[in-house]
């Protein structure tokens, strides 16, 4: 099979790394990829949002399967464009991508389809939205821009002043452009967050093991939110009973709802859940693999990933069981000092090969924000590397991951030292 992965981050490197081991693979490409991905695939210099170039290229190169990493190309309609040319795609069309592309659409349908989620109201007018804040009696409240806002569109406000500022920034200041034409004001939930992903062929689901992400930049979950500073899988809080409940209360109603709406969803559905003593609520759906959750989930997959993605793309899961390793995995993200604010780029990175070699086959360093300058891998983004390790028990996996992190050097390297602490 000739396979094209679209994207250039740590998630795409993890996908490429796993797919590269498939006996069914003939040739792997990635557009645009990164220097880490280049070790297992041929990088193609086409941007992930250039729908026309990607489609033309995939037709010309007789690609059998396209795996779309990020949400933006899906929301723009990349899967539709490829399918119109008869190419199999792992990733939903524009219709299914609304689940992530419009939070208003997603929340309204969650209500309609009986999926548990926080109470909410939708506004496109600042003064009406501000007026609504009084219902929260000065307590915390969550403000969300409707559209895609590069992970910055959700503000968990501690009180009305902060909430009003967020409403002003989005509706009047146009901080997110048209993605902020509408806002959601939502009840603030408490509990523990879990990411649960399921592959979908349009009719059936294959649930993946759970993962937990660390969104805040600082230790003990302090400071501003990032794209994710680390992850581990499985999440101990995600018991067998909770898995059953998630399937029954979240994924099956979602599947029915999608069917009702005549949406043939072929890809992965990511449910961000908030779990407390007796309650399970959906915070959000994404229509792609999580980053960095994928880096912690895929090393645990014993089965071949390629036939699974092909089956989902073909709308036909074969019944073969998917096997997972019981061993937990941990991914520690190494970032650039200053991220998620401004940071410098272009620092030489050393020690990646040494870190992997010392890991004895259970350490993988997934590259995210890197570039190649004069044959040297350098920093080129906020999240630079996803240093991943797995072991029989979580403490061993954590120790191995941090050993690998310490072997990797670049100027301004920043990472959290408490990844997976909640599970230890
Ligand atoms: P989202 O982009 O929807 O995943 O939101 C980003 C983060 O905001 C989530 O991972 C949660 O930490 C937080 N969040 C979103 N909605 C709520 C809510 N209703 N209550 C509390 N926290 C929330
Ligand atoms: N790690 C969070 C996300 O992928 O949205």
Write up this protein:
The chain has 424 residues and is α+β, with helices and mostly antiparallel strands. The protein folds into four domains: 2-94, Rossmann fold, CATH 3.40.50.20; 125-181, Dna Ligase, domain 1 (2-Layer Sandwich), CATH 3.30.1490; 192-314, D-amino Acid Aminotransferase, Chain A, domain 1 (2-Layer Sandwich); 329-414, Phosphoribosylglycinamide synthetase, C-terminal domain (Glycinamide Ribonucleotide Synthetase, Chain A, domain 4, Alpha-Beta Complex), CATH 3.90.600.10. Helix content is 30%, strand content 27%. Strand 7 (141-145) and strand 8 form a beta hairpin. Helix 6 crosses helix 9 (240-260) and helix 12 packs antiparallel against helix 13. It is globular and about 55 Å long. The two termini are 41 Å apart. Adenosine monophosphate binds at residues 118, 142, 154, 156, 186, 188-189, 193, 215, 272, 283-284. Glycine binds at residues 213, 228, 286, 290-291, 293.
């Amino acid at each position: 099979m000739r396979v094209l992965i679209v994207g250039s981050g740590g998630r795409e490197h993890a996908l490429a790394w796993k797919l590269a081991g498939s006996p069914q693979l003939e040739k792997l490409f990635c557009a645009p990829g990164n220097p880490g991905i280049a070790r297992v695939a041929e990088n193609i210099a086409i941007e992930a949002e250039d729908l026309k170039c990607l489609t033309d290229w995939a037709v010309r190169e007789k690609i059998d399967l396209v795996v779309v990493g990020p949400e933006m190309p899906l929301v723009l309609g990349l899967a539709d464009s490829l399918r119109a040319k008869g190419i199999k795609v792992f990733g939903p069309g524009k219709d299914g991508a609304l689940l992530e592309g419009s939070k208003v659409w997603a929340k309204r349908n969650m209500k309609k389809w009986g999926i548990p989620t926080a109470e909410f109201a939708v506004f496109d007018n600042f003064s009406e939205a501000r007026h609504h804040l009084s219902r929260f009696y000065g307590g915390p409240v969550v403000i969300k821009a409707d559209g895609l806002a590069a992970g910055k569109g959700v503000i968990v406000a501690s009180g009305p002043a902060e909430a009003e500022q967020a409403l002003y920034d989005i509706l009047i200041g146009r901080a997110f452009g048209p993605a902020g034409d509408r806002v959601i004001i939502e009840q603030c939930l408490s509990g523990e967050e879990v990411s649960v992903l399921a592959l979908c062929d349009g009719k059936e689901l294959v649930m993946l093991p759970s993962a937990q992400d660390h969104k805040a930049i600082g230790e003990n979950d302090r400071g501003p939110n990032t794209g994710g500073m680390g992850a581990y899988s499985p999440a101990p809080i995600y018991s067998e009973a909770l898995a059953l409940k998630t399937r029954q209360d979240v994924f099956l109603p979602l599947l029915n709802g999608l069917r009702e709406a005549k949406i043939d969803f072929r890809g992965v559905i990511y449910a961000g859940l908030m779990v407390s003593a007796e309650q399970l609520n959906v915070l959000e759906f994404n229509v792609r693999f999580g980053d960095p959750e994928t880096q912690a989930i895929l090393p645990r997959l014993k089965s071949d990933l390629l036939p699974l993605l092909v089956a989902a793309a073909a709308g036909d899961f074969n019944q073969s069981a998917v096997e997972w390793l019981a061993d937990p995995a941990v991914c520690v993200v190494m970032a650039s000092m200053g991220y998620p604010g401004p940071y410098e780029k272009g620092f030489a990175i050393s020690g990646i090969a040494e870190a992997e070699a010392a890991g004895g086959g259970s350490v993988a360093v997934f590259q995210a924000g890197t570039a190649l300058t004069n044959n040297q891998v350098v920093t080129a983004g906020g999240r630079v590397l996803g240093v991943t390790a797995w072991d029989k028990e979580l403490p061993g996996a954590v120790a191995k991951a941090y050993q690998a992190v310490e072997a990797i050097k670049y100027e301004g390297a920043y990472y959290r030292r408490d990844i997976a602490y909640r599970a230890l």
